[in-house]
């Protein structure tokens, strides 16, 4: 037996929660299913400075406010849920989880993206991190490597520098760091950060709590060996859509292709947020997707 | 049997791990992965109420964290017979947490 809803939303990041607010306010019986906890990627951002109405707010704090609003609107939420099976091609979409089977005529996929892990095997996992908010303060007074030269890597480097890290070496494979020039300059102005461009991390050799790492410059072939206490990796994100290959229209990177109204190739199935094939991935764009997806789901259900 | 996750401090920590075979999670307040792990612990506790579970802030109780060489959070320690049997860092699923305890 499945539990029946009007709308199921998978993923309780900002896209899924915004969709839930709109759906619940449209009187749709709405269930949000989340693998971890509400908030998604924004939980990992210490200060968000471009969210209208909040010149600077902690990501987890902002997400807590959205969660409260969503629940107050009447949406139901289940966190720490493992989805075992998606049946989404029929008129009734059904989701099998470790907490039971849930069914609805409409479904919004808002599962965002997960960080790309370092493609190097090393028995040093306790010192390789993907969340500076979680693990940064253990590196006060220590030397660290930041892998990646995008905005995330520079923003996180600034945060780590603020925690009292002794030195940061940013390693970027491209010729130029893709981060915004203003952020790069702000980071360099701390005097604690050095940047290696056209450089790839090729080896990590653990030496007790430290490790010796090998960097290779792609232009000159020069090798550099240095010792480090830890490593923070920000080399991008990938969409969690492997379960839908051959079912939903995906682009070559695995992002879900949608119509301007967030519809997919399956009637009643919508997508919202970072999981969607698009150019800009921000909180505000995810909220826009979530809004449109929920309103379209409502329209679909009223037909 | 405690129905909830017990919040420990430097005074209660020693007694708790001496008197209970248990899982203890070290966490930080602003750490998203810790928040996930504590929620996982709640779900695990709901299914296995007989397993004693506790948590302790590595910020507020820095001395305890230092004494046990907690290098990152969340880190879960399993105590049996008053001794640390195993530990694991990072986010786990409820079944993995239960397994960590049962195998220790
Ligand atoms: C380091 C960093 C800093 C950033 N800073 C900013 C910023 O300052 N301002 C800004 O506007 N944007 C920022 N962004 C981008 C912003 O965080 C994202 O665009 C936004 O969070 C995307 O929201 P989402 O809901 O689409 O996905 P997510 O936030 O990724 O949420 C997806 C949710 O789905 C859940 N999920 C995944 N798979 C499943 C499954 N199988 N079952 C159930 N649940 C599942 C996940 O656990 C997650 O909670 C930043 C991103 C990064 C990486």
Short description:
The complex is a heterodimer of chains A (303) and B (104). With 303 residues, chain A is an alpha/beta fold. Chain A is built from six helices and 19 strands.
What this model shows, in words?
The complex is a heterodimer of chains A (303) and B (104). Chain A is of the alpha/beta class. Chain A has 2 domains: 176 residues, FAD/NAD(P)-binding domain, CATH 3.50.50.60; 117 residues, FAD/NAD(P)-binding domain (3-Layer(bba) Sandwich), CATH 3.50.50. Chain A is 23% helix and 28% strand. Chain A is built from 6 helices and 19 strands. In chain A, the strands form 5 sheets. Chain A has a 5-stranded parallel beta sheet with strand order 4-3-2-8-19, covered by helices on one side. In chain A, helix 1 runs parallel beside helix 2 and helix 4 runs parallel beside helix 5. The mean pLDDT of chain A is 96. With 104 residues, chain B is α/β, with parallel strands linked by helices. Chain B has one domain: Glutaredoxin. Chain B is built from 4 helices and 5 strands; from the N terminus they run E-H-E-H-E-H-E-E-H. Chain B has a 5-stranded mixed beta sheet with strand order 1-3-2-4-5, with helices on both faces. In chain B, helix 2 packs across helix 4. Chain B is globular. Chains A and B meet through helix 3 of A and helix 2 of B. The site of flavin-adenine dinucleotide has 31 residues of chain A, from helix 1 and helix 6. The site of flavin-adenine dinucleotide (FAD) has 31 residues of chain A, from helix 1 and helix 6.
């Amino acid at each position: 037996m499945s539990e029946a809803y009007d709308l199921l939303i998978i993923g309780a990041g900002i896209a899924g929660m915004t969709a839930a607010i709109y759906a619940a306010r449209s009187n749709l019986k709405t269930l949000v299913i989340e693998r971890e906890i509400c908030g998604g990627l924004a939980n990992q951002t210490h200060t968000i400075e471009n969210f209208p109405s909040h010149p600077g707010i902690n990501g987890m704090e902002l997400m807590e406010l959205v969660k409260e609003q969503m629940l107050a609107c009447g949406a139901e939420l289940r966190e720490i849920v493992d989805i075992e099976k998606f049946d989404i091609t029929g008129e009734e979409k059904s989701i099998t989880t470790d907490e039971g089977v849930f069914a609805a005529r409409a479904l919004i996929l808002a599962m965002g993206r997960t960080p790309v892990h370092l493609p190097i095997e090393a028995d040093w996992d306790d010192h390789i991190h993907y969340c500076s908010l979680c693990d940064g303060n253990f590196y006060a007074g220590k030397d660290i490597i930041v892998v990646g030269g995008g905005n995330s890597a520079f923003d996180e480097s600034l945060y780590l520098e603020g925690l009292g890290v002794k030195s940061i070496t940013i390693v970027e494979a491209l010729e130029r760091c893709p981060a915004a020039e203003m952020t790069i300059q702000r980071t360099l102005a701390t005097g604690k950060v050095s940047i290696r461009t056209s450089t790839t991390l090729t080896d990590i050799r653990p030496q007790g709590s430290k490790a010796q790492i090998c960097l290779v410059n792609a232009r000159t072939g020069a090798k550099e060996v240095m010792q480090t206490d830890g490593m923070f990796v920000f080399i991008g994100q990938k969409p969690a859509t492997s379960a839908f290959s051959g079912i939903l229209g995906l682009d070559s990177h695995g992002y879900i292709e949608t119509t301007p109204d967030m519809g997919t190739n399956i009637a009643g199935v919508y997508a919202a947020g970072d999981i969607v094939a698009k150019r800009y991935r921000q909180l505000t764009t995810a909220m826009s997707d979530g809004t449109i997806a929920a309103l379209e789901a409502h329209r679909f259900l009223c037909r | 049997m405690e129905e909830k996750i017990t919040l420990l401090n430097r005074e209660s920590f020693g007694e708790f791990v001496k008197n209970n075979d248990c899982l203890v999670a070290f966490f930080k307040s602003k750490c998203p992965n810790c928040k996930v792990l504590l929620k996982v612990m709640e779900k695990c506790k709901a299914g296995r109420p007989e397993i004693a579970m506790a948590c302790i802030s590595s910020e507020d109780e820095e001395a305890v964290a230092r004494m046990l060489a907690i290098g990152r959070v969340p880190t879960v320690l399993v105590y049996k017979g008053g001794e640390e049997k195993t530990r694991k860092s990072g986010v786990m699923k409820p079944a993995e947490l239960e397994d960590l305890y049962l195998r220790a």
